[in-house]
Amino acid sequence: MAKVLLAHGGGGSRSAELTRLVFQRFLRDPLLLEMDDAARLPDSGQVFTTDSFVVKPLFFPGGDIGRLAVCGTVNDMAVMGAEPLYLSIGFIIEEGLAIARLQRILASIAVACRQSGARIVCADTKVVERGKADGLFINTSGIGRPVFRKPVVAGRVKPGDAVLINGPIGLHGVSVLTARGEFGLRASIRSDVAPLWGLIRTCRALDVPFMRDPTRGGLAQTLNELVQGREFGVRIHEEELPIPKKVAAVCDLLGFDPLHVANEGKVIMVAARSDAKKALALLRRHPLGRGARRIGEITAADPGRVIMATRAGSERIVMPPAGEILPRIC
Amino acid sequence: MAKTTPLTRMAERLLHLPVPGGAKIMEVCGSHTVAIRRFGVQRLLPAGVKLVSGPGCPVCVTPDLFIDEAVALARQGVIVASFGDMLRVPGSRSSLERERAAGGDIRAVYSPLDALRLAEDSGRETVFLAVGFETTAPAIAVAALLAVEKKLANFSLLTSLRLVPPALKALVSESSGLAGFLLPGHVSAIIGRQAYGFLAASRLPGVIAGFHAEDIISSLGLLLEMHNKGIYEIVNNYRRVVRDEGNERSRSVLAEVFTPSDAEWRGLGSIPASGLVLRPAFAALDARQRFTIHADSAPRRKGCRCGDVLRGLIDPPACPLFNRSCRPDHPVGPCMVSSEGSCSAWVTYG
Predict the structure, then answer these.
(1) What CA–CA distance (Å, rounded) separates B142 from B148?
(2) What is the set of domains in chain B, with CATH numbers?
């Protein structure tokens, strides 16, 4: 590996390789090596996370880079079972960005903060020369407080647990893709970008050993990360997967697997068997969870693997995407 | 949770269809290879029936030399526009993905018209990698005609276009033990059912199929029934898209811009009149005439058996590199790179 390729940023196995072979040689804090969406700080018990946003275009149906920057970090804490409390935000602005556009983005940041309950309490701006930042890049970090009654740790997942999702998949990736107009596609698909804490907190009293937001690399990436190196596998059912017709059509056309496409307002929730029905009912009661479905279960068969039962009554393996599926979607 | 649906019933019927003596069926098209494994159709075949992948993945059959030429062009500082799949294909020494990281101006596009627009907007020399079969070639022909009409002096094509029927003819004549063909849906929409007459003459049935689970399962059923009964016909089972006579207009645009020529296929060698090159009237659009290309070629890496996979002689796992040194994130051969390649489909969907 002599140079960084775009594929190293795709969130799939190439990203993992960059992390393992380059980053982890130098950055080896045990909390970092746990590779969770957020670090659990031992002294305060709080969670702490960071994320950067380079989406192109800055505005897309259903959202913009500002909303994405708040939701991304809020959701990384929410899936740790933590209430998002404080955010920091850093802007890298390209010379020439219209103030009106910046204001629209800031307004949408304010709205997303209100919706999520998090407060932005420190901020920074830098301006770089024209041509160096594609308009605007944003970084956010966040601190949250775990409130789930039982620990949300993948080590507690066991065969028989149910795999739930709160609604249709593939919307964000396809929305950004079609907004770019690169492929001559105009599908008017709205991104699902949304802060998930309000939805997730409804399940705080239940036994939920694992949650993750399936962003880059999609459902396939998240489920594979869950089972990798574990004694259990996941079995999902094709007929239960909520894939909107428009998403399926765009994916068909471009040769993408909808399971590899990014989401920004979805949570995969693994609920203990005894709490699965309750969790599903609670999710469905919330506006962001009306389309919630049980899509599969944790199995003892096929440890370390994600298997999909197909509509035709057969099965196949679900692998994480290998390289760059769609660059610059978040 | 296994529900009975019309589709599962259709799948049951296929699974229990007796095929005395078994049969080896080739799915010609890379999109079929992917669909088959995505729906798990290979697990629904009757006893003794085997599916093998054919040469219908454009990236897979493109020879190394072509990538080497594209790499050489990128190093000359021109914009190289290509379908995304080609970017990761390793040539002899480099790939377009690596050239891009090294500063080469390489753009992934989804249509030759995007490449044309790139040439117009940038004003710089732009070469489009014209790779594909009868499906993509008409759009490339249209781009060529538009470039001429707009008098664009900075747009050209590096061609490696291929035709499906000559490759099937070559496969049939080498007595590969095939019992029939699952014929490509989109290619057939252009060339029509009539283009496969030679198959029936060689006592081989074929079914033109779509890409949904229903299409593939019902087409395999039809094909095996014909095989059982000794009927050698070409059936169009994709009527919602394919007309028997094909698409006359697309063919005439093709004929206006391109002319058939002998072409090199990875795995199959040189096949007479199996490629398309620009007609002399369009020579100004030919990147090979416009630039001096010093392709830095080297012999193929040892062990890669893409060629045998493409001829349906071996299944991907029989290749010594499969899923060991050749994986989707580190492909050695093109069948692992292309999302339509059979090696990638075997790894991705199991």
Answers:
(1) 10
(2) 22-57+170-236 (3.40.50.11750), 60-164+246-290 (3.40.50.11740), 306-349 (no CATH)
